[in-house]
Amino acid sequence: MHSTVLATIAATGFTVAFFHAAIPTHWLPFVLVSRARGWSPGKTLSVALFAGLGHVLVTTLLGLAIAWLGFELDEHLGHAFSWIIGGALMLVGLFYLWRQFRGKGVCHHHVPETAHKPSEHCGHEGEGDHSHWEDELAQSAIASKRKSDWAAIAGLFVMLTLSPCEVFLPVYLSGVQFGWRGFVILSVILALGTLAGMLLFTSLTLVGLKRTNLKRIERWESGLLGVLFCTLGILFIIIESGHGH
Description:
- By secondary structure, this protein is mostly helical.
- It has one domain (2-244).
- The chain is built from 10 helices and 2 strands.
- The chain has helices at residues 2-21, 28-37, 41-77, 80-102, 132-138, 149-161, 169-174, 179-206, 212-219, 221-244; strands at 108-109, 120-121.
- Strands 1-2 form a two-stranded antiparallel sheet.
- Helix 1 runs parallel beside helix 8 (179-206), helix 1 packs antiparallel against helix 10 and helix 3 (41-77) runs antiparallel to helix 8 (179-206).
């Protein structure tokens, strides 16, 4: 029974990480900067991988804090903690569904004017292929040819690293009952899903894939996350109720 629950959490986690990595903020900057600076596809993907590792590392550290807090609470709450997790996941899911209904989407960090001051944007970009977000990146110091390649790489790394995958944190919460083993498995899932998504969509865009369909993923990201987390919360309650009997 426990292996089934962990497999469900892992599958949900991979889906969350992969589709979150499909959001343009995770790959479009590398493509635009690459074209502006004349980078080869190999160098572009290497920079994306480097920045993605920083993104994953910071998210994993936040997940570590959540796991540690969860372990402490689990010792005091016992079996009731599984019900609390299920309820919390459903609340998170309802929050994302509410954001989808309000048209606010998921918050993503915008391109920093410098490598040290990222700004934040919530909501959806323009409906066309060209967006204000792309204009902002093109005018930033990151894409400037007056900066060295190392400065551009550092800017991309900081931009993505300071924008952790907050939508994966509830997945860490759901894996608390599996101890450190669950934490390690989910951290691997986070890395695989995020890096696979970033490298795939960066590669496809480099060879000329139009971004129209991918923009729809961004538009419906909150709704997708809401459905996933509500479903996971309901499964938790059902499985734990059956297990208790």
